[in-house]
Amino acid sequence: MKNTDLQSLKKRVSEDPGFNEEYQKLNLEFMVIDVLLSMRKSAGLTQRQIAMHMGTKETNISRLEKGRSNPTLKTLEGYAKACGFELKIDYRPLSN
């Protein structure tokens, strides 16, 4: 697919309200994954080391970092703690 074809497709798809809603749902998931990876990189730890700190399997950490699990707040808190961070949840009004 040519770059212009891809740009045209993105434009058409982005005009679909259903697409935008689903994209926003995934955007939050991607942001969480990015934060997890940033914490682990900052801590200089491997997935195996995180798993050991959390008392779980390395495959569980891999799934978590790939967005292939539905983690609980307890899991996210444990991951953050294993990396030397604390979990903080914030909110703000939606922008229109």
UniProtKB/TrEMBL annotation:
Database matches in InterPro entries: Cro/C1-type_HTH, Lambda_DNA-bd_dom_sf
Pfam families noted in UniProt: HTH_3
MF annotations from Gene Ontology: DNA binding
PROSITE patterns in UniProt: HTH_CROC1
Superkingdom, taxonomy of origin: Bacteria
The HTH cro/C1-type domain, residue ranges: 36-92
Name assigned to this protein: Helix-turn-helix domain-containing protein
Source organism (scientific name): Shewanella holmiensis
